[in-house]
Amino acid sequence: MDSTERDKLIEAWVGQSIDSSIFSIKPVHSDASFRSFLRVYDDKQKSYILMDSPPEKEDNEQFVIISGMLIKMGIPSPRIIKKDLQAGLLLLTDLGQQTLLNKNISTPKELNRFYGEAINILVSIQTNGIAFQEQLPKYNSVLLHSEMDLFSEWYCRKELAVDSKTLQEFNFQELFNRLSARALEQKQVFVHRDYHSRNIIISDTGQLGIIDFQDAVEGPITYDFVSLLRDCYYEFSDKDIDYWLSEYYQQLSSKGLVDCSFECFKIDFDLMGVQRHLKAIGIFSRLKHRDHKSNYIKDIPRTFSYLDKVSARYDFLEPLNEFIRFYNLK
Questions:
Q1: pTM of the complete model
Q2: Residue 36 region, left (φ>0) first, then alpha (ψ -120 to 50), else beta?
Q3: Of 72, 115, 219, 250, which residue is most buried, by most CB within 10 angstroms?
Q4: All domains of the chain, ordered by start, with CATH?
C-alpha cells in the first residue's frame, strides 16, 4: 500500500471511529520506532491522537496490554478509544501538545514541580505495578547484554569504524558482565523502559501524562529513574541529580521498595546509567546507519559526558574511560 492509499485508509477509519466529523488531521511527530502519529481534530475542536503502527514491525498487542495495566494502576496515560491491530491503527486520547523536554521551564520552582511530579508518578508505577510484574517480560542477562552489544556493533564498528582487534583489546564483554550482574541484583520492579523528558506529556492544565510505554519489562528499580535524571536529551546539574536521588530513595524506602543503604543505591544508579547510555548510543547510531534517521546523533556527546564522569569513578570501568579518551569522545 502506498502512502496515498494509507492516508485514505486512515482518514476513513478515523471518520468511523469518532462521533463528530473530522475537521483536520495534522502530523505530530515520529519517534525512534517505525510508528508515526497524527493529531485529529473533530468539528468541535476536540483532539485525538492517531497512532499509525505497522503491525509487521511493531508489537501493537503489547501496547494494548501495557496501556490496560497503567490505566488499572491509575497512571495518567492515553486511553485507547478504538483499535484495529491488523491494520496497525489505534485512536488514543490526547494528553497534550507539550513534552517535558520542550516545555519552557523558567524557574527552579517550576522545574521542581514538574520533575517532582514525574518522580511521584514513577513511584506509583513501581508501587502499583507489583500486581502486574509477573505478566511482564523479564530484563534478564541476555537482554541487558544484547542492548550493550548495540554500542559495540553500531557505534564502535559502524560509526567509528573500529576494527575487531582494537575493539577486543578494550575487553568490553567483561565490563558488560559486571554491569548486567549489578543490574539484576537490584530490586526488580515494573519498568517503563523509556521514562524521559520526550515521553512525559504536559497538558494545557499542567498535568503530566506518560506515553511510549509498550516496551515495559520487569527490571532494575533504578532504570527508569536514571533515564529521567541522566536524560540523553536534557542535562541537569550534579547538585539537582543528587537532590532528586535522595528524595527518590526516601520515597522508595518509606514504601519498602529498597532495603540497601543510600550509598549502595547511588552506585546502582550510576552503573545502571552506564548500561542504559551504552544502549542509547548504540540505538542512536543504528537509527543513523540502518534507519536513515540522523537527528539522534547530536545527542551522543551529551550521553558520552555521563559515561565519562561515571567511568572515572569505578575501577572496573577503566576500559570504557580509556576508550572515551582514546577516541576523544568526552
A1: 0.95
A2: beta
A3: 219
A4: 3-93 (3.30.200.20), 99-326 (3.90.1200.10)
